[in-house]
Design goal:
Layout: E1 9-15, E2 18-25, E3 28-34, E4 47-48, H1 53-66, H2 84-93, E5 102-103, H3 104-110, H4 117-125, E6 138-139, H5 152-161
Parallel strand pairs: 1-4, 5-6
Antiparallel strand pairs: 1-2, 2-3
Length: 165
């Protein structure tokens, strides 16, 4: 993923599922990636700033989530770094409540293109804000756990934490 913003701030936290790198722009939280996750962005030139408001808020809310104290996230997001189609899919992911799941087919219907199941799957896989934009809540048509850029063991753990499995 190539970010459009010229200035990206970053911070890193440890979680029960491994380290997480976060990124923010002046518009809000723009990225959350588990260590060794697929589709890792080019972080060259990013500025480490643990006290950036969006990063500090994301860290606090993620810690609460992993401690079982939070089901919903409430922060300003910057999803502007994807294509219009990707952004539409990512916004649909935000509508999936904790403890619930959906399928790629249902997501493609929700974005108004039922035949675009593969394209929806690709957009879900490129979601830049793991956990908070809950791509882990998307399952195969038969309810099977399918790919997750952070690894299927993490997807399983996230769904178990939320009571969806």
């Amino acid at each position: 993923m190539k970010f459009k913003s010229k200035v990206i701030y970053t911070s890193h936290i440890d979680t029960p599922l491994g380290g997480i790198t976060m990124a923010a722009t002046d518009r809000g939280l723009a990225g959350v990636w588990f260590d060794q996750q697929r589709h890792w962005p080019d972080t060259a030139g990013w500025i480490t700033k643990d006290d950036h408001p969006a990063l500090a808020e994301a860290a606090a809310q993620l810690r609460d989530y992993f401690a079982g104290k939070r089901e919903r996230f409430d922060m300003k997001l910057d999803l502007s770094h994807g294509t219009a189609f990707q952004q539409s899919v990512w916004h649909q992911l935000l509508a999936i409540p904790a403890g619930a799941t959906t399928s790629y087919g249902k997501l493609s219907m929700n974005v108004g293109n039922p035949a675009a199941v593969r394209a929806v799957g690709a957009a879900v896989g490129r979601n830049p804000i793991s956990v908070i934009v809950p791509c882990h809540r998307v399952l195969g048509a038969d309810g099977s756990l399918t790919g997750y850029a952070g690894g299927l063991e993490r997807k399983t753990a996230l769904l178990e934490l939320e009571g969806a499995l």
